[in-house]
Design a protein that fits this description.
Layout (H helix, E strand, L loop, with lengths): L3 E5 L3 H12 L5 E3 L5 E5 L6 E5 L15 E4 L3 H13 L3 E9 L4 E7 L5 E7 L2
Parallel strand pairs: 1-4, 5-8
Antiparallel strand pairs: 2-3, 3-4, 6-7, 7-8
Length: 124
């Protein structure tokens, strides 16, 4: 259903470095359709996550209530990716752990531009 999600950045080089390192935990590849946007995906036709310099030239800002969830596939990868994000300069928004009454396990952080993300898995 979702083709791609982009997060605004004010420093494309730093954002690309951050997401290259963070997404190295998953089997994804970087794609660069142009000099304004960079996308990562597992395969052609699969959902993509991207960072983009705003088209209108105004500074990138974060959306209040906006969050991107990345399925890490396992608790171990959630823990590793959350720790990696923090080591790359992300701000902690909630340590990895179970959430709610279901089988959701996730860790939350804000990237270098303040965008909120969670890495999660559904425990079986």
């Amino acid at each position: 259903m979702i083709g791609y999600v982009t997060l605004g950045t004010n420093d494309a080089a730093k954002a690309i470095e951050f997401y290259d390192a963070l997404l190295a935990h998953l089997a994804v590849k970087r794609m660069s359709p142009n000099d304004r946007i960079t996308l990562w995906s597992a395969a052609k036709g699969q959902p993509m996550l991207g960072v983009a310099v705003p088209f209108d030239g105004a500074p990138a800002t974060t959306g209040n209530g906006t969050m991107v969830a990345v399925n890490a596939g396992s608790k171990e990868k959630v823990d590793a990716m959350h720790a990696e994000a923090l080591s790359l300069g992300a701000a902690d928004e909630g340590a990895p752990g179970p959430r709610g009454a279901g089988n959701f396990y996730g860790g939350y952080f804000r990237d270098l531009d303040g965008n909120k993300l969670t890495v999660f898995c559904l425990e079986g």
